Amino acid sequence: MYKPLIFIGCSKDGQHLANAVQVSLSESSHTIIENQCVGSPMQNKIDLISEKLKEVEYGIVVFTKKDLEEFNKDIIFLIGFMKGQLGRNRFTILMPEGESIDSISSYLYGLEPLRYDLAHPNITASVGPASHAISIYVNQLDERITENDYLVLENKKNLLREALDSYNCTKDIYNPFLACLINCFNVNNNFLYNPKVLGATLFTLNDEELVQIGSAGKIKSNHRFLVSDSEKFVVKCFEKQELTLGEKKDRIKEENESSSVEYIFCVSVGVNSVLTIHIYSKRSISSKDFENLLKELEKKNAGYISILNLLLKGRSS
Q: Model pTM?
């Protein structure tokens, strides 16, 4: 099931409320709280939040009574920043019952915030009605068009050029296409920690073996697997004709790292072929997230995979 990504901004005093909202929305949405955003060591907070807002469908700014009484400038700034990044219809303000939004700024006149009950003995229950309203509204929204959508379009153009150029090749036919693909392949998600694409391979059936016919990145060439070797990720994908996600620990490490994880995304393409994308992550994910990660990788890269399918179909005809 598709789950939209929602950003939650708050002060330190509002952290407990943001956590409660996150719990309340967990069934219908993926959420990320401001302090859960991870960036590069030298990245400042504005750039970090700006990058995250490019990925989300909706935003929530949580106000506490203390934020209102002390006129918390950071949270007020976040309202303007979020409105500028997401637009008026893609964010909301959550504040205590009985407080006026005009107390924040007269520029917010006309906006109707959602409320929570300060007197409620259960924090999660107090934000429950507001969270439910957000869940219903967000799931009715069309998916947001972002800068990334235009990047995807440009990537598709580049892949199509590589696909057309490959018809003039007689050697290493698929390598240039795969090299372009690993630069395009989108691995940004809510499951992997600082992921990056290591490489890609393409296998096709030859007698009783899956033989590697293309590779790019940090992947060795000339791999081949017997179709009877059902323990191999590539063979599993080929046999079942469905997405497969493999996991290899500590096979490829970055400098000064004690551990790392390589995820191998396998997808059936063409008539008898399998594409593998090798993805590096600093830490592993829980087994319950495998299926969600698979679906997210497939969804974000469906257009790229379809171009490879066209290339394989064209070369086989």
A: 0.62
